[in-house]
Amino acid sequence: MKNCTSCGAELQSHWKFCTNCQAPQPAQSGGSAAAETTQPDHDAVRSEQPTQRFEQAPGQSAADGQPGQRAESTATSTSVFDPPVMAPAAKSADATGTSGSGFAAPGAPAGPGGTGNNGPGGMGNNGPSGPQGPGGTNTPPSAPKGPRKRSRKVIILVSVLVVLLAVGIGAFFYVQNLIRGGASSPQGAADQLMESIETKDMIGLATLVPLEEREPIQRIQEHLADKMEEFKLEEALTKVGRDEELSEDEFSFDGVTISMEGVEPEIKEIDESTALIRYASGEVKVDIDPAATTGTLRTIFDSLEEEEKVSETIELGELGPDGSPLTLVATERDGRWYISPMYSVAEMVNASESYDRGSVPEASTGSNSPAEAAKAMVEAVPSVISEGSLSPLAGTLSIHEGSLLYLYQDMFDDAMSGMNGEEISVSDVRFTEGEKDGNRATAVVDNIRLENDYGDEITLTSECIKGESDSDSFCLNGSGYTVEPSAQMFGGLQNLSVTTLEENGKWRVSLGHTLADAVIDWTDSLTREQALALLSLAHSEDASGDIAVDDSTDVTFNSAGFAVLNLRVDEEMSLAAEDEYDFGDMTVYSKDGKEEITTLGYGDEIPEGDYKLVVFAGPEWDEERAEDGGDIDYSKELTLVEDSGTSFSDSYLDPGKDYFYGLLSLSGEAMTHTLKGIEDDGELMFEVSGSVLPIGTPGTVVVTMDGEEHELKLVAGEPATVTIPYPGDGEEHEVTVELFPGEGATTAFLSYNGELSAN
């Protein structure tokens, strides 16, 4: 890169990329002082300076305009987007400028997340960071040279209005170009990527992502923000003391410094719309001062009790698969170049497995309507299955998604090789036009009939999937809520449909937007109570009744299958439900709901006092819910009694057993089991039935009996066994099981069992 994207100045050898960007300023009319460069406001529009490239043949000057050596020059605008520049003292010629980050559209708060043991699911993830603002654009080529000064938001809004009124359609395309983001060339995209990382410009990074990948995520994000407001989830979080999750600086990079040296990306064009960006040289240095961090980073360092400064250097030439250079993929869409996360991941996998790349057909594909596009996709499915290749499907998908399948055809075909040869027929395929929004429209299933080689048939309509028996059939019921992840989640869809895009006058199916519409439908099908349950916020609700120990209480459950009750405990004791199998989790919280005290049934003592009890309904409610799908009326008699204090772990520590089982989840955690005595020699079969370990950290289980250790090496998800001789001395023997996840790992999960048998 020879010029900085942020200010247009020529890159100097002593600068660290563009962080120390020092652009010469135009002199004020009537004076010789240089104009001052001010620090950009984060509400300013990011605008990429246009770069003019000329190819110069050997022995010719750039002015000749002949092909050959490349020279670059920049031009900047003094349009209404730039406020007047005042002439400061001469010393301001050394002022330092940094890249602007673009103004932020209204962002979404964190999406559903949180885990807990008091309700269903609890598996959501934090939504993506709110805004995905406008990206860079080329200023009009006729603009006079000189650096830009970033505008305040008010000036921008007024200026946009003036420009629209002044130049009409030209300004419209200019603003459209800003919104689209991207860069004017693969080289520009590569430079903007590194600059955005170095300046921690998340808006700049977001606008480098292709619209086809960015927009579905943005639609989901905006919808979740609306649901947060509709369900008053912020109030619920604040009520139970989790309002720190709403911190505006949650994604702050305070305390983090990123610098780069020697970064020189190599560009290799694959075709006219695709290019590889290869970082064979250069390093990225990351310095973190824990004491200066805020938001999420502050929370992480607090949990680690880490205050020492961190400094890491990343060699870009070794960041790819197997120590290869980092290679990203840039794609061109409508004249702008973007860096595609989806293509880049595919390229990394493709390169690591040494697959050849395919090519994208030049012939235009697509259909004349959304319904025809959806039909073409469905009718391609038999060929996909019989050939074991996604190529027949590629021509029916959006240009961005279809090109991906063509380009990495060998990789995808190899993944589907086991399907090759299967036969399925599709007939009577009919779609109708659904809702339309700009260049996006849905196509709703009217009828699709599928039949396999064995004569089994499945028919799809807009609301049902009908097999040959009731167990093979499923219909949408208006609710995607379920206690455990299951097919019931699909009940929340409005209808069975796919989403299509109009591109270059033709309609094609978009898998990304189809998924986004499914997520939006699913969240729309939830009630507020169900959202609270999924976010482990049931205890934020006010109590609907009272319950006391030994009193039978008729508990009415809401649409999420839980009830909140005031609980009075007159003396310290442990509690459980008299008919525990009729209910799900029952969790005790402090009266204000901000502190979890215990979950009933585990023998924990509850001090005397007033509490809030959250009770979830049992499997009977879930079965009725699955059948009905709507808000059911359900109640159950609940009686709380003093618990004997026997916990799950105690049940398999009793002596005299010929089997045992258990769970381990912490490094160095151990459990001891007592096995009965036998008169004849036998053997103990010990088996690890499943394990979850951190990536790249194989673990070890040590089984000790009579002082002798037996070691098992673990691989995540794979079983492991060992047979241990057992003496026939008639005496009981203790067996200790201990877990070691591996170097650098602090957590793991392990389930195991042992069984004693005589020879």
Summarize the structure.
By secondary structure, this protein is α+β, with helices and mostly antiparallel strands.
Q: Can you walk through the features of this model?
A:
By secondary structure, the protein is of the alpha+beta class. 21% of the residues lie in helices and 29% in strands. The chain is built from 15 helices and 32 strands. Strands 10, 11, 12, 13, 14, 15 and 16 form a seven-stranded antiparallel beta sheet that branches. It has a five-stranded mixed beta sheet with strand order 17-19-23-21-22. Helix 1 crosses helix 2 (169-180). The protein is globular. The N and C termini lie far apart (76 Å).
Count every helix, treating DSSP H or I runs of 4 or more residues as helices: 15
How many β-strands, per DSSP?
32
Helix content: 10-25%
Q: What is the mean predicted local confidence, pLDDT?
A: 75
Give the biggest beta sheet. Answer: 7 strands, antiparallel
List keywords for this structure.
five-stranded mixed beta sheet, 15 helices, alpha+beta, globular, single chain, seven-stranded antiparallel beta sheet, 759 residues
